[in-house]
């Protein structure tokens, strides 16, 4: 109970202590170079950020397409077309590739 209420003070201290222990251990070992580990971590983080950015941009494109599809009638009215179904078509036109007569 004593430690639960002060987690905002305890966790940063533990994180700094762990970082110092890992840095000291890597400095003590001769076969491991800290620069190699650092640049490897930077490369992994940059790959993760790039893939997250791709996912976010793809999601934004899908949301944008949904919004345009949802408000297509209002957008076409703003442009000056009174009947937007003549330009865009109905679902059955899209499903049959405009082959129904």
List the defining traits of the structure above:
single chain, mainly alpha, 75% helix, 0% strand, elongated
3D architecture notes:
- This protein has helices spanning 7-28, 34-70, 72-79, 85-88, 91-95.
- The chain is built from 5 helices and no strands.
- By secondary structure, the chain is mostly helical.
- It is elongated, with a radius of gyration of 29 Å.
- 0% of the residues are buried.
Measured on Cα atoms, how large is the radius of gyration?
Answer: 29 Å
Distance between the termini: 76 Å
Instruction: Work out the oligomeric state of the chains in this entry.
Output: single chain
Tell the overall outline: elongated
Described by strand count, sense and barrel closure, the largest sheet is:
none
Helix content: over 70%
The overall pLDDT, averaged over residues, is: 84
- Helix and strand run: HHHHH
Structural class label:
mainly alpha
Can you tell me the residue ranges where pLDDT is under 50 for at least 5 consecutive residues?
Answer: none
- Count of helical stretches: 5
Number of strands: 0
β-strand amount? under 5%
